[in-house]
Give the backbone structure.
Amino acid sequence: MAFEQTLSIIKPDATRRNLTGQIVARFEAAGLRVVAQKRMRLSTETAEAFYNVHKARPFFRGLVEFMTSGPVVVQVLEGEGAIAKNREVMGATDPAKAAAGTIRKDFAESIEANSVHGSDAPETAREEIRFFFSELEIVG
Ligand code: CMP
């Protein structure tokens, strides 16, 4: 298993309900280390750029509106197999399909307000980390 970094976002539905600490605790309990973290309010332009890959999808406009509706916490998580491990801890995109004990099963409100985002592959992880963080902000 490779030692990896992945980009995580704690979404507005979770920050609104004050769940940031509980979500971070789950990452840490799974062996992931938070090596960069900042709380921010995404602009429409930033959310559109981040989710550009989904721009043709019917849910794109709603997704951008939701992601700009409140603060998010963006993070870099590091560890052995961090990308897959993070996805395992998050659970399926749709909380109705997420396994028991996952973040989305326990906290997500809907497929849109699904509490967390995580990179899906090494190349996307690199791009998504670079989108939000400079080298100086990542301290392992
Ligand atoms: P995320 O991992 O952030 O990547 C894209 C997001 O689009 C996804 O999580 C969901 O929050 C959101 N989304 C909204 N509707 C859908 C849908 N029907 N299928 C997939 N993703 C959706």
In short: Residues 42 and 110 are 20 Å apart (CA to CA). Residues 54, 59, 63, 93, 111-112, 114, 117 surround adenosine-3',5'-cyclic-monophosphate (CB under 6 Å). The mean pLDDT is 98.
